[in-house]
Amino acid sequence: MNTNKNEKFSATTEMDNGTCTVFLQGELDLSVAPEFRQIMEPLVENSEQDLVLNLKHLKYIDSTGIGILLSILKVRHGMNAQFYVREVPAQIQKLFDMTGIAKFFASQENSQ
Amino acid sequence: MKEEVQQVQLNLPATADYVDIVRLNLYGIASKMGFSYEDIEDMKVAVSEACNNSVLYAYNHEDGMVEVTFGIHPEELVITVKDNGESFDSYKGDEAATLHDKELGEAQIGGLGFYLMQALMDEVSVINEAGKGTKVVLTRKLTRSEERV
């Protein structure tokens, strides 16, 4: 069980053919929320590119992190730009379903 | 039946940087008690939300401490998160809320943390006394191992 150093938060960005994919790692919580917002801000505002968050290696998210995803959804929706989440781990999908944010991601997927 | 309770207590600065220490300790204690991986993940979220509230609202950006007590009962884990700050009324103001019946435009994040605590624990109580801080008590019952899948 990994409860250790590898849970430190990091984000890696890949640009490919009009799509920007951000791979998240570790724990996205209150302590790294400012860092995450800062990384995402310029990417979110670029309406030319589709924006994808890959959550495969995200170990944990709290309501602060979910709040940031919600604000990204709002901005992207307002710009008529795409925003997806991919490879969502079961435990995190459970939180998306419980809080109700899942349906906003779903409707974005459908419009693809 | 006499109930034996053992306690583990943590005193931490009320800053965001120490919430992961609470999660690490929770992981150790809950796995020792025999909770399943999924139960522990649920409790991690609930306890972190309680700590976040103390970090964000208790001390109004001044230094303060959060006291986390793990009450280890034979049948349950009782986690108390306590601060001595100004009692914030964020718990009263935004009742547990989800985004289920909302459009994206009107969706707000306030109340989600409290909702998650309630949804993920068996019992949640919030004791909020003016000037004496806030105490959140989270209880999760231990499912017997033979009942576990």
Mind explaining what this structure looks like?
- The complex is a heterodimer of chains A (112) and B (149).
- With 112 residues, chain A is of the alpha/beta class.
- Helix content of chain A is 43%, strand content 29%.
- In chain A, strand 1 and strand 2 form a beta hairpin.
- Chain A is built from four helices and four strands, in the order E-E-H-E-H-E-H-H.
- Chain A has helices spanning 33-45, 63-78, 90-99, 102-110, and strands at 10-16, 19-28, 50-61, 83-86.
- The relative contact order of chain B is 0.20.
- In chain B, strands 1-2-3-5-4 form a five-stranded antiparallel sheet, with helices on one face.
- Chain B has one domain (6-147): Heat Shock Protein 90 (2-Layer Sandwich), CATH 3.30.565.
- In chain B, helix 1 (19-33) runs antiparallel to helix 2 (37-58) and helix 2 packs antiparallel against helix 4 (112-120).
- Chain B is α+β, with helices and mostly antiparallel strands and 149 residues long.
- Chain B is globular, with a radius of gyration of 16 Å.
Helix content of chain A: 40-55%
Oligomer: heterodimer
Question: How helix-rich are the residues of chain B, as a percent range?
Answer: 25-40%
As a whole number of angstroms, the C-alpha radius of gyration of chain B is 16 Å
Query: Which CATH class of chain A?
Result: Alpha Beta
Provide the number of structural domains of chain B.
1
Largest sheet of chain B: 5 strands, antiparallel
H/E series of chain B:
EHHEEHHEE
Mean pLDDT of chain A: 90
Identify the overall geometry of chain B: globular
CATH topology of chain B: Heat Shock Protein 90
Find the CATH topology of chain A.
Transcription Regulator spoIIAA
Helix run count of chain B? 4
Largest sheet of chain A: 4 strands, mixed
What is the H level of CATH, i.e. the homologous superfamily of chain A? STAS domain
Range of strand content of chain B: 25-35%
Strands in their spatial order, largest beta sheet of chain A: 1-2-3-4
Distance between the termini of chain B: 28 Å
Q: Which CATH architecture of chain B would you pick?
A: 2-Layer Sandwich
